[in-house]
Amino acid sequence: MGKYDLLVKGNVVLPDRVIYDAVIAVLNGKISGIYEEISELSAKEIIDATSCYILPGAIDAHVHCFSALEEGFTNAGFSAAAGGVTTMIEMPYDATGMVCTEKMFQEKISRLEKESVVDTALLATIQKEDGLDEIAKLANAGACGFKVSMFNTDSFRFPRIDEGQLLDAFSAIAETGCPVGVHAENDDIVRRYIRKYEHDGINDPRAHAYSRPKAAESVAALTAMELAFYTGVKLHLYHSTFQRIFEMVDFYQSQGVQVTAETCTHYLTLSEDDMVELGAKAKINPPLRKKEDIADLWHLLTQGKIDMVTSDHAPWTLERKANEDIFQNASGAPGVETLLPVMYSEGVSAGKMTILDLVRVLSENPARTFGLSHCKGRIDIGMDADLVIIDPNKTYIMDESTLHSTAKWSPYHNRKMAGKVIHTFVRGETVYKEDGQLGKPGHGRFIKAMHPSKGCLV
User: From CA 378, how far away is CA 389, in angstroms rounded?
Assistant: First the structure.
């Protein structure tokens, strides 16, 4: 056998099975072979991770690196690497404005390749009015998809796109083969209910959850799926929080609509009642739901009804979470570093999901949906050597002070964790080791999406 750059031995998790005590051989950043015996192999570096799982790197399909400018690609990338995320899919809503033109997109690629630690794909968005002629240019530049909001989070950087503009935009995006992802909350319902509950915002942080009822989410999701039905666009529903959304997705899939849906770590682990203790740290849009909704989501996940789990990483510092009135705080929580650890601990280790479920919702499906499966998302010969070693026998207490985001806090602080990320590789290079070693800014690359033409499944 020829000499490789790297050999990693352990329990290798493939899409359909685990090969115990196998060896992954890496050459020039790619997986060159998968063997059941190491004795005849040689390499510059050999890592014996016997009794540990070797997973494909996680793909966090919902990361906001620049909602807080002090975070950026570098700090989010350090966080990602330490959490076993080898590819981030970055949102187009920066504090400096929306990434909605080819020029802005190319500028962001240049910044990414100077600053990122892990590989990164980029979403684009559309202007509130007009600008549809940029869609084809953005797709050609390698955007992995488009993101739009049906709720006016911020008129400057995160505006509501009305249904008429969405209809035209969906038609234009459909021609590119790219998916379009939607923040699905009905603006009119949420505005009305915020007025209804805003007087409770100082006394009960759960008023935020009450102000964004399930109907606001399902009505918006329904509208988006109807628009997808008529335009043929590939639709993705971001941060879906309860069972009915996924039942609706099932129905529209039966009607021929190409639609996928995700949930987030926090919806699988926290309920609105946790806001009593966590306060604004658990203020997220859409909001946390009830405990019974958590159980429903876990069941859906194991049934294959949830396409992916993401973090919706929003690295607000605690200053943006300090107001006694829940409505006056920023929405969102940091999570790219805790995505894989929490899903392993709360899911696999707790017996709520299998290790194969884990790689499906954190690696395979995000890659397939967003046009990255030519190089990312699974352990296979010819794929990028994006690998994560998890030691299932290690336990620890989550300590927010050790996390790498500039946010420096986590809703999972002091939670007992089972299983630990001990090593992360991006294209065969170490970007994180348990001893504290981190990768270097500039190692991360822009991953250009490859989408089939209109009418083909991603």
Answer: 14
Residue type, 251: F
C-alpha distances out from residue 413 to 103, 342, 354, 407, 408, Å: 40, 11, 25, 13, 10
Rounded distance between C-alpha atoms, residue 122 and residue 370, angstroms: 10
Q: In the β-sheet with 3-13, what is the strand arrangement from edge to edge?
A: 30-35, 18-27, 3-13, 42-56, 387-397, 416-426, 429-433
456 confidence band (pLDDT: 50, 70, 90): very low
pLDDT at 58: 99
Residue 458's pLDDT is 33
3-class DSSP state of 57: coil
What are the strands of the beta sheet with 85-90, ordered from one edge?
A: 58-63, 85-90, 119-124, 145-149, 179-183, 234-237, 259-264, 308-310
Nearest Cα neighbor of 407 from 67, 54, 28 is 67
Between vectors from CA 285 to CA 362 and to CA 247, what angle results, nearest 5°?
60
CA distance 237 to 387: 27
Question: For 352-371, what is each residue's pLDDT tens digit?
Answer: 999 999 999 999 999 999 99
Strands 416-426, 387-397: pairing is antiparallel
Cis preceding-peptide flag for 334 (omega within 30 of 0): no
* CA atoms of 355 and 379, how far apart (whole Å): 14
The mean of the pLDDT values for the chain is 95
pLDDT per residue as tens digits for the range 325-345 = 999 999 999 999 999 999 999
Q: Which sign, positive or negative, has the C-alpha torsion 223, 225, 226, 230? A: positive
Alpha-carbon distance 421 to 21, whole Å? 18
Other CB atoms within 10 Å distance of the CB of residue 318 = 11
For β-strands 30-35 and 18-27, DSSP reports them as antiparallel
Sign of CA pseudo-dihedral 182, 186, 191, 197: negative
The Cα 339–Cα 335 span in angstroms is: 6
Residues 106 and 448 sit within 8 Å (Cβ to Cβ): no
Contact 314, 333 (CB under 8 A): yes
